[in-house]
UniProtKB/TrEMBL annotation:
It is an enzyme of class 1 (oxidoreductase). Pathway: Lipid metabolism. GO terms for molecular function: trans-2-enoyl-CoA reductase (NADPH) activity. This is Peroxisomal trans-2-enoyl-CoA reductase.
Amino acid sequence: MSTTSSIQTIFRDHLFAGKSALITGGGTGIGLRCARELARLGAKVVLAGRTREKLEQAVAGISEQGGEAHAVVCNIREAEDIESGIAESIRLMGGLDLLVNNAGGQFPSPAEDIPRKGWNAVIDTNLTGTFFTTQEAFRQHMRSHGGAVVNIIADMWQGFPMMAHTGAARAGVDNLTKTLANEWGRHGIRINAVAPGIIETSGLERYDPMVRPFIEEAAKNNQTRRMGTEAEVAAAVTFLLSPAASYITGVTLRVDGGQSIFHPLCPPQGDGKMPVFEDTFDRVQDGSVP
Ligand SMILES: CCC/C=C/C(=O)SCCNC(=O)CCNC(=O)[C@H](O)C(C)(C)COP(=O)([O-])OP(=O)([O-])OC[C@H]1O[C@@H](n2cnc3c(N)ncnc32)[C@H](O)[C@@H]1OP(=O)([O-])[O-]
Ligand SMILES: NC(=O)C1=CN([C@@H]2O[C@H](COP(=O)(O)OP(=O)(O)OC[C@H]3O[C@@H](n4cnc5c(N)ncnc54)[C@H](OP(=O)(O)O)[C@@H]3O)[C@@H](O)[C@H]2O)C=CC1
């Protein structure tokens, strides 16, 4: 079971004391790691997702370590769920200062085979769900109180072969990030995005095992020669939500080891000499990290 105390953080204690954070997809993977870090730094957190059991297990882990966490079952593909989920989050935490739009997913498929229903599911989740979650957070709280938002997207800068649907959706969110930063800055709201490369998470385990060797191989195409860790993504999210980023809005920060700047004249070489920030995915999951 994941814990809050076993995590490394470079941020100071109580950094987010008095703040309220909603993390969609917060029950697992990158979202959970962000939630643990924010809770460890003093924020109240709501973890939102479709599966109550996963959320409650994650909440228990954070609570055991002294963090304040709540579970809200919410499918961001459903308008009513978003409206009631945001209202419930505000009720539970007494506010909504920070939003991490992390819920998302897709399935690998050649473009010619993507069925309309699958296309719609991916667009509804990653683009439409992200937009309306943010709009509802704005309408119900941030318009009058300000806030900070981070959208999790992906490395789609050269297109996204085998994942045309998510490439299109994430490019849309990259653009939305800039639009909303322009429109809502006057309300004291900053909106940024983080674009992870290939990150070792529970999410990858949901793909067909046949896909795994391709992902492993692709993950060597960056300057670290490895997959990123949840902690490396969460650190970027935490920074962008923090007061240290008070002059940053409308940007997308790439957390990909340089994957998106791959150049055929100088492809990544060697074993990878850059240290891992926190290589604890497996060990944290099985509780062996102190
Ligand atoms: C390099 C990697 C980088 C990125 C990594 C990550 O992001 S990892 C982290 C992220 N984690 C993840 O990405 C993992 C989670 N992924 C998911 O949950 C799904 O991909 C989802 C996002 C579509 C939601 O699906 P859901 O179950 O909630 O939705 P639903 O039941 O409504 O289905 C809608 C329709 O979609 C279609 N369709 C769905 N799957 C396949 C497929 N494998 N094959 C073909 N088609 C597929 C199918 O048409 C289906 O309708 P049907 O034929 O059943 O009537
Ligand atoms: N791992 C990687 O290499 C990369 C990941 N990303 C993105 O980072 C984000 C987190 O992924 P990761 O941690 O890896 O994988 P996970 O699959 O562990 O996380 C996705 C989370 O989103 C939730 N979710 C999915 N659909 C919905 C929905 N309709 N409404 C509410 N919650 C939903 C899931 O919970 P539930 O199913 O219970 O609802 C799950 O907790 C995703 O957007 C992913 O696409 C981007 C680039 C690379």
